[in-house]
Structures are given as structure tokens and as C-alpha cells.
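User: New here, any thoughts?
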Amino acid sequence: MKISFMTLGCPEWDLATICRRGREYDFDGVDFRGYLDELDITKLPSFTTHAAATKKQLNDAGLEVSGISTSIEVCDASLKQANLEEAKRTIDVSRISSDLARWRSRSAPDS
């Protein structure tokens, strides 16, 4: 069975530390839910313009990107446009992985 960890649990780890610790702890992959001080990785060059180098560094360490997680609140109509923009960015960034993006949904707001 393959197992991965989520970066939400290690917000101070840079990519080298993620790679080193991921292998040290026998993980096979990483689910990115933030990186360092930015929760939305779609805003970071490491996952946009430098995504190939990031993927190579992870793969060289024997790790795969198992997913890209986001906290888009699909049940909040007031956030529709912002959610659509973030969703499009997340889909683009998910190409660093096996094209897996996770969307978190909260209950619909009270009427």
C-alpha cells in the first residue's frame, strides 16, 4: 500500500525537508495543502512556473505528489467567483501530480 502525508501538518518544512523527511518516514507521496507560510500553493512559483523542478526534486527523493488540496467552499454562493478562479488555478497546479485535486466542502450556509 502506498501512503502519503499532507503538508498542513508540517507548515515550516521547505521542499528539501519535505523530501528528506518524507523518505526518512517511509512515505511514498505528499499531498500539498499549503507550503511554508502560504496556504494557497497556486500562488507560488514552486508550483506554477517552477513546477517541473519541484516535481523532479520530489521524484528524485522517491516521492510523488499524491494530491493538491484546497479549501474552496463550494456551498457559499457569495464566494462563487473567487472559488472558480482558485479552482482553475488548482486544476493547473494539479498537473504536477497525477491530476488529483481535492475540494473541501462545508455544509450549506443557513438561509
Q: What stands out?
A: The mean pLDDT is 85.
